[in-house]
């Protein structure tokens, strides 16, 4: 009965109201999310470094257009394999130690990239880029699962958004450093930041769920007490975690995923959200931000524009931390997708009109040549559209799909399903980043933006029909929603589904 009343109370208290109980969870979430900051460094590196490497004035390691395309898209390609390979160490050695050891390959990869300049050997640049790409794939599921398992239901949404916030921060850091130093210096500067991840995670506790599932209940209770504060009564929550862990099916395997609907439904939902997240075109803009502004006709300096976009993304991803537990996942995603589509449509329209006037000015008399000047005076418009797109993305699709990934999956399969979903997302990232230059040259930039806008609108429809609301629910309650058997001791405290959740449940049955 006490647990049930707690469930009701947690939905009305503001996320960060009880600071002594929340502070330890914030510290753990920030430490784990540093892995995503490192991922942001990898993603932001190409926007600043590739223009330097492809410049005609570059005296060493000059990259041709095809080589530049591969050096940009190599990390998301390698990340697919990194995401799949991390499932075993994450389950065997724990989320904490897995995150701690990730700092080593991050540092190694960045330092090798910087060293390639001094030895004048391009393959070393590709090797370093491959290493950092592999470890970015491992970072996403591990950090998100760690945060979700450490956070209490009342703040899980806010803390789960930390990963996206830190990745945005990493992208911004790479943009700023890349604008003021040469690319090889940038490699050594940003390559030192992952050291913080290793040191911080050595001081953090392991997740109570993992400890219980590995028969370390005494350590699990100590870890839970550390996460909730020394004066918090954790008995009820600990019993729920232990009961849920004991209820998991033995001998988890990938084969069982295909034969259990309560596993396939959340996996398909998560993968679909990841698909729409990537095919909104966000990483095409992040990886090629400097070139995007130049091609769109912006009158602002391309590096300044990139920094502005990175700053806006970071700020509004932080804002989403405050919104996700107040308005819920579904509302934020639907608002986000709608305004992303509007922004991309506006940007595509500007590019189309700009190109049309350019062609028209070539064939008509001098009286109409002045018209393109009006387009030139609207050079601020691409930045406005992109800022609106980034804001819309940041408050919804930038953070919520990763948060949902950490919420939907049951404990026993969380490491497997999380890595499958993350690797699928990274595969979509690779496709978007690798095909963006080709699509731009064949379809035209305006058509590419139109295609991304259509994906955003489709995402809104999908969320409205199939995504259940997980705000304020325990991980055990979410598993119950998808049909996983839950012991009576846990099931008795599950609250009745509200109307939106019931509608989503009916829609999920169609999957």
Secondary structure topology:
Blueprint: H1 2-9, H2 19-53, H3 65-85, H4 87-92, H5 95-101, H6 103-119, H7 122-150, H8 153-160, H9 162-180, H10 183-191, H11 194-202, H12 208-213, H13 217-228, H14 235-246, H15 254-259, H16 261-278, H17 282-287, H18 289-296, H19 302-327, H20 329-363, H21 371-377, H22 381-395, H23 400-408, H24 414-443, H25 445-466, H26 475-481, H27 488-491, H28 499-508
Helix pairs in contact: 2-3, 2-7, 2-9, 2-10, 2-11, 3-7, 3-24, 5-7, 5-11, 6-7, 6-10, 6-11, 7-8, 7-23, 7-24, 8-19, 9-10, 9-19, 16-23, 16-24, 16-25, 18-19, 19-20, 19-22, 20-21, 20-22, 20-25, 24-25
What does this structure look like?
This protein has 511 residues and is mainly alpha-helical. It has 28 helices and no strands. Helix 7 (122-150) crosses helix 23. The protein is globular and about 70 Å long.
In short:
The chain has 511 residues and is mainly alpha-helical. The chain has helices at 2-9, 19-53, 65-85, 87-92, 95-101, 103-119, 122-150, 153-160, 162-180, 183-191, 194-202, 208-213, 217-228, 235-246, 254-259, 261-278, 282-287, 289-296, 302-327, 329-363, 371-377, 381-395, 400-408, 414-443, 445-466, 475-481, 488-491, 499-508. The relative contact order is 0.14.
């Amino acid at each position: 009965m006490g647990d049930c009343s707690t469930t009701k109370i947690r939905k009305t208290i503001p996320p960060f109201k009880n600071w002594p109980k929340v502070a330890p969870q914030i510290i753990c979430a920030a430490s784990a999310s540093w892995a995503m900051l490192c991922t942001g460094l990898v993603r932001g590196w190409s926007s600043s470094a590739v223009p330097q490497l492809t410049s005609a004035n570059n005296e060493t390691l000059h990259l041709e257009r095809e080589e530049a395309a591969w050096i940009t898209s190599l990390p998301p390609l390698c990340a697919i394999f990194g995401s799949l390979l991390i499932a075993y160490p994450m389950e065997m050695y724990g989320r904490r130690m897995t995150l701690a050891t990730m700092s080593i390959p991050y540092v190694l990869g960045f330092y090798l990239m910087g060293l390639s300049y001094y030895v004048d050997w391009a393959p070393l640049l590709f090797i370093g880029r491959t290493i950092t790409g592999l470890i970015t794939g491992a970072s996403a599921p591990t950090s998100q699962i760690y945060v979700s398992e450490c956070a209490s239901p009342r703040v899980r949404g806010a803390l789960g958004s930390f990963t996206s916030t830190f990745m945005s921060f990493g992208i911004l850091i790479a943009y700023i450093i890349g604008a003021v130093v040469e690319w090889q210096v940038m490699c050594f500067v940003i390559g030192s930041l992952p050291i913080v991840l290793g040191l911080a995670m050595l001081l953090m506790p392991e997740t109570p769920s993992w400890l219980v599932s590995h028969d370390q209940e005494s350590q699990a209770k100590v870890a839970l007490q550390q996460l909730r504060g020394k004066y918090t009564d954790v008995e009820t929550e600990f019993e729920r975690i232990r009961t849920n862990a004991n209820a998991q099916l033995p001998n988890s395997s990938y084969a069982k995923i295909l034969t259990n609907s309560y596993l396939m439904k959340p996996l398909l939902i998560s993968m679909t959200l990841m698909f729409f997240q990537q095919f909104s075109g966000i990483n095409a803009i992040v990886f090629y931000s400097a070139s995007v502004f130049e091609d769109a006709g912006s009158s602002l300096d391309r590096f300044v524009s990139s920094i502005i976009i990175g700053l806006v993304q970071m700020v509004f991803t932080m804002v989403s931390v405050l919104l996700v537990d107040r308005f819920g996942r579904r509302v934020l995603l639907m608002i986000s997708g709608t305004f992303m589509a509007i922004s991309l449509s506006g940007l595509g329209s500007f590019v189309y009109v700009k190109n049309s006037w350019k062609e028209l000015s070539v064939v008509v008399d001098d009286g109409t040549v002045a018209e393109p000047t009006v387009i030139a005076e609207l050079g601020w418009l691409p930045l406005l559209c992109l800022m609106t797109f980034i804001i819309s993305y940041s408050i919804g699709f930038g953070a919520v799909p990763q948060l949902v990934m950490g919420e939907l999956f049951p404990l026993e399969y969380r490491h497997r399903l999380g890595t499958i979903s993350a690797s699928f997302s990274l595969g979509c990232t690779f496709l978007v980043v690798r095909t963006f230059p080709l699509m731009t040259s064949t379809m035209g930039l305006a058509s590419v933006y139109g295609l991304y806008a259509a994906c955003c609108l489709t995402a809104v429809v999908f969320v409205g029909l199939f995504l259940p609301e997980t705000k304020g629910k325990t991980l055990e309650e979410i598993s119950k929603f998808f049909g996983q058997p839950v012991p009576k001791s846990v099931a008795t405290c599950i609250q009745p589904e509200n109307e939106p959740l019931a509608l989503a449940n009916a829609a999920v049955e169609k999957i």
